[in-house]
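#structure-requests
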Amino acid sequence: MMSAVSRLCVFCGSSSGVEPAFAVAAVELGAAIASEGHELVYGGGHVGLMGLVADAVLAGGGSVTGVITEHLVGAEVAHHGLSELVVTPSMHERKARMAALSNGVIVLPGGFGTFEEAFEMLTWNQLGLVAVPVVFLDVDGFFEPLFAFIAGARASGFISPDHGRLAQRSTTAGEAIRLATAPAAPFAPKWLT
């Protein structure tokens, strides 16, 4: 059963990528978050897919909290039209704050930073530090190689089947929101199995 209002953390690229479908998906996701009455928590930038998601939520009348580092504010990539902008001294504090503010995670295409953020949330789930759904919105098969990698790590005995299911996959904004607002699946945290 879905909560009435969820604060959804979206991890995604600070660029828009080369395929127009990435930008379309970001705008669709932001519009859906707003229309379903949820709030957005994200990296606080006005650039790339990050800016597109935030602007779409704002255009739909939704609330947006950006969490950004002092360094990135200095680089002038902060979005100054948000409902709230939280500035942290470090990337570690930024991720911890985003996690504390959110009860579900959706991951759009992106690069190293996006993958690092998503995998940290998966690891925190695996260790029992948080219990939030992590959903990859797979735009045009972007995450297909990632899920093949996860399946290979599971088959090689590095990820248990239980923990492998922590990384969920969807192909539409609506499905991603439904999965991200559902209760986290029960599992035994690592070191207890």
